[in-house]
Design a protein that fits this description.
heterodimer, A: 297 residues, 3-stranded antiparallel β-sheet, 12 helices, B: 218 residues, mainly alpha, 9 helices
């Protein structure tokens, strides 16, 4: 193990040399969880105890991991995405960092292949999925889901000059959604789905490709998260609009590994404390321009 | 996209270059000798060994590299605690997976190279009194390499492009950084930048192999 590690370290250093020490957070953090020596573990534990003695409510520290590895798609603005310096930022990242500070855990954001998220979680390579994850019946069964922390609508996005003004106008049109998304589920569950072109939605690997195709006219409307659509259209000044009529209302939650209830409770308690301190409102203000976008308890 | 944005995006994409280069050099340096060893094994007179290696090549070439990476990265940890030494880091998993996969292809490339060598060459070596080691290293290998070189070039170019697969096991590389830039800006210019970076890498590679081919044209 030691040999593998030192070999790996050498490689990583090589990698950093090549990338001109680009301050890439991901490269250096790859080895961190396993490389941490027992002494580091001990001092981390001590630190987390010290931190929690200040906050009265935490009593489940023993079950908390030293490193809180947040798994995310890293291309889901404004919840979690990558800025121009390859730093991972977003609403979820700010919230998670604040929670980690409170619970004395080391924070790490790990971009993962979204299709592999279940395996990442099952093998413990990530601690949770915290990335605008819609709470669905299926996920409630497969994950230890947190209580909802944000409300989101599945909305219909069209071009500004489109003649589609209501859900009923989608009949005979090409309607798209991201594969495996709750937007796709909402569209399939809706009665309008039978009358859209081909009787079935057009599925895209990610919503950006879908939006690109909407601009090019290869599809007529997209069903997607209102939070992401709003941000995308405003931030990139796209010639698109949302219909007033929505497809479905839903909520975002945090997904932990099944059985990881101690950590889930600790995170929820920390979020409640952060809400009481006003930190949550600050984060909401920063990203959405209003202080009540994030649900508090 | 403005020029300054293109510049920042390019430098963001270049952060994925380190991983690509490490993968390229380590995998090439490890899989070529391993591949040659496999070729020798398939020619072994000890039949079980040759069958075993042929089966290995069959499996490695017959399944997607991405699945193989999944097995090494996600599958091995499922074996449980006794196999803890096999729980590699993401980058080690990628290096191991790529090397095992590419060695199978190189084994076949070298086999093709060896097929091109006339049986008369072996007979001549025997007549000259060369032993097996001398025959292989002094006579057969140099001729084999010359024949195999165009295929080796081909495989190396594929390797550069295949590195884009490592994001499936959560290692960010050039294409991943391009993808996140596209989702942030809503413009496909970052893909164009990635296109140019890959092409530039392979241009250097091709110039090198062209030079090598000329040098070995004896």
């Amino acid at each position: 193990m030691k040999k593998t590690l030192s070999f790996l370290m050498a490689l990583l250093m090589g990698a950093m040399l090549f990338s001109g020490c680009g301050g890439s957070t991901t490269a250096s953090s790859e080895a961190a969880p396993e490389a941490a020596s027992s002494e580091a573990a001990a001092s981390e534990a001590a630190a987390s105890e010290a931190a929690s003695s200040e906050t009265a409510s935490e009593s489940t520290d023993a079950a908390l991991p030293e490193t809180f590895i947040l798994g995310l798609d890293a291309s889901f603005p404004p919840m979690g995405f990558t800025d121009e310096n390859n730093e991972i930022i977003g609403v979820d990242i700010d919230l998670a960092k604040a929670v980690c500070d409170k619970l004395g855990m080391t924070f790490e954001a790990k971009p993962i292949d979204w299709d592999a998220k279940d395996m990442e979680l099952a093998t413990g390579k990530i601690t949770c999925i915290w990335n605008g994850l819609t709470i669905t019946d299926e996920r409630l069964e497969n994950y230890e889901m947190s209580r909802p922390y944000m409300e989101n609508d599945q909305v219909i996005v069209v071009m500004n000059d489109s003649d589609i003004n209501a859900k009923a106008d989608l009949a005979g049109r090409i309607v798209a959604a991201q594969k495996d998304s709750s937007g796709l589920e909402a569209l399939m569950a809706d009665e309008i789905c039978a009358s859209i072109q081909d009787g079935t939605p057009k599925e895209y690997a990610d919503y950006v490709t879908a939006l690109g195709d909407l601009e090019l006219g290869r599809c007529d409307a997209i069903v997607m998260d209102s939070i992401v659509a709003d941000y995308y259209i405003t931030a990139n000044q796209k010639d698109m609009r949302l219909l007033d009529e929505t497809m479905a209302a839903e909520e975002y939650g945090i997904g932990f590994k099944k059985g990881d209830t101690a950590l889930l409770e600790a995170v929820e308690n920390a979020l409640s404390e952060l809400a009481a301190e006003g930190t949550v409102a600050e984060i909401s203000q920063k990203w959405f321009g209003r202080d009540d976008a994030i649900i508090t308890y | 996209m403005s020029w300054s944005e293109i510049l920042t995006t390019t430098s963001a994409l270049m952060q994925g270059l380190g991983v690509v280069l490490v993968l390229f050099f380590v995998v090439l340096a490890a899989s070529m000798p391993l591949g040659f060893l496999l070729t020798l094994c398939t020619r072994s007179r000890f039949k079980p060994l040759s069958w075993l290696v042929n089966a290995y090549i069959y499996v490695m070439r017959g399944t997607p590299l991405m699945l193989q990476l999944f097995f090494i990265y996600f599958g091995l940890p499922l074996l449980g605690e006794p196999f803890r030494t096999l729980f590699f880091d993401a980058l080690t998993c990628a290096l191991v997976g790529f090397t095992l996969n590419y060695a199978a292809y190189f084994a076949e490339i070298f086999r093709g190279g060896l097929l091109s060598i006339d049986v008369g060459q072996y007979e001549a070596c025997k007549v000259l009194g060369l032993n097996r080691w001398q025959t292989t290293t002094r006579v057969i290998l140099p001729q084999m390499v010359r024949v195999a070189l165009p295929s080796i070039t081909n495989e190396s170019i594929t390797l550069i492009k295949d590195t884009a697969l490592v994001f499936s096991i959560a290692i960010p590389e050039i294409l991943h950084y391009a993808k996140v830039a596209v989702s942030r800006t809503g413009s496909i210019v970052p893909y164009a930048i990635a296109f140019v970076i890959y092409l530039a890498l392979n241009t250097v590679l091709q110039i090198f192999f062209n030079w090598l081919e000329k040098r070995l044209a004896y």
